[in-house]
Amino acid sequence: MSILPKFFRLLLTTAFSFIAPVFLIGAILVGLFVVGFVPGFEILCQSGIEGLAKFLEIFGDGSPMEGVLAIGFTFALVGAIFDTYASYRYQTLRGD
Q: What is the reported pTM?
């Protein structure tokens, strides 16, 4: 079997593994921002956004955006390693 389909699958897995946590963090931030417009939830949502920003600053050396990227790259690396292991395991069990 050609190595090109395996490479594309690895590339696609890595891209999805990076995009998934970035979208999840973005969805949480947007959700908190939107719910913040509901009367009575402003303070709760503002503290949630600040808490998430502080959490991301831990991973981003003081910058929330770098924290999101660090988490995304870590998930991409883990996804690529897992896909490589699963591909190797399937190949050895099948006998190729």
A: 0.85
